[in-house]
Amino acid sequence: MSASAGLGAPLLVWLTTTDHKRIGILYGVAAFGFFLLGGLLALVMRLELSAPGLQVVDVQTYDQSFTMHGTIMMLLFGTPMVAAFANYFVPLQVGAADMVFPRLNALSFWLFLSGGLIVLSGYLVQGGPADVGWTGYAPLSELPYSTTTGTDLWIVGLALTGVASILGAINFVATIYTRRAPGLSMFRLPMFCWTILVTSLLILFAFPAVTTALALLLLDRRFGATFFVAAEGGDPILWQHLFWFFGHPEVYILALPFFGILSEVIPVFSRKPLFGYRLMVLATILIGVLSMGVWAHHMFTTGAISLPFFTLSSFLIAVPTGIKIFNWLATMIGGRLTFPTPMLFATGFIYLFTIGGITGVIVASAPLDFHFQDTYFVVAHLHNVLVGGSLMGIFAGLYFWFPKITGRALGERLGKAHFWLWTVGFIVTFLPQYQLGAEGMPRRYADYPAELGWTTLNGVSTIGSGLLGLGVLAFLVNVALTLRRPPDQPADPWGGNALEWWTSSPPPAHNFESLPPIRSNRPVYDARRAAEGGGRSGTAGPP
What we know:
66% of the residues lie in helices and 0% in strands.
């Protein structure tokens, strides 16, 4: 019996599983549940900002909402969705039966889920959840300024999710290095595996910094330490260094895996090999290296860092990112293009992420950043990168691999409705925020004066957020209707390239009955061509 076919398996099976496929599904379902809550909080904030005055929530509730929204989307949805895709597909793409450390893999998921629930348990205590912003800046996160127990729960919960990410990263690195099938050299790995490898290494460098910062903050709040208390000899700027040493690599932790997904989707629907495979590998490595040296461009206005160095390093990271975009476009040029839903989300990713990248170069310039810092320009830029980028990549991956995971293909009509609602809604939501930021509207405020003329743009942005919500609703309806049908998908419904398309849909518990000869980074394509040519290379089709 296939692991994924057991979506209706007994609860005890899911609670005790060490199968990487089931753990991937658990990650995905839990992360998407957090996403829905984070999205509801975003809608509440947009309704509050649609007009001057306080009409939906009070200031304290607004502070808690944007704290929890940012925390959920970055750390309880984005990072776990990376783990969901990686858990399910890394062993399949390297031709392995499971992860190197299956029990550690299960522990990682349960630590993540426990940490996320502890963060949300702030809603159950007096005073409510954390209200310090998702960045948790000291001294605002110190006890005299944030007295709610929810902030302590936020610290403990995020520390657990950080440990879960570190354990998961160790597992991914070990699996990619040690469990590759015969013939699958490093330069025959699918691009998705390369991006997961670099992402995992980033996690191993970045997450210990934020976990340390959280531990120090808890010591300050509950045990009398003074690490971030300036009056007692501490340094609040130390929090920013520790946080952003994690926080900027986190942007690429959330982007690189979805670069990998695009590098799987675009060649399949262009009917061409990925243009410049080795250059794409090099660009992935360069992004990982450079992302560790740009953290302080979030701190230009503190006066505590070198402006020229971090401006230059921030400009440099645009180069390997640009290489990826040009290579995706070169893959499409001259191809026999088709545009099912996965390809639509992939092309939408390129467009929206490129806008985010261009505006990133703008705020990487220190003089411009002085003007845009803590305005809605930064909010729009961040969402262009992480929503227009990562979330479009998530949906591209879900539509692309849903037949492999469940044996059922998501409906194209609802899928295209989802894409257009999401794309139009995104532009309508965030394009006005660039102008609001240019006009000086500060972020993290629950209200604004009517006489400043920001009402119309905020109203338009709120309408766009409603379209985003409708797009997600279309996706949920699509999933529900699709899962009601019996599995009917073949092993390779799209004409794929990597090894996951060799096994059945969904895969059996041990993943593979056999493996094709691996002589390139497209072994399933090679086997398909050999079979079409009368099997001259001695390969057969998938079992």
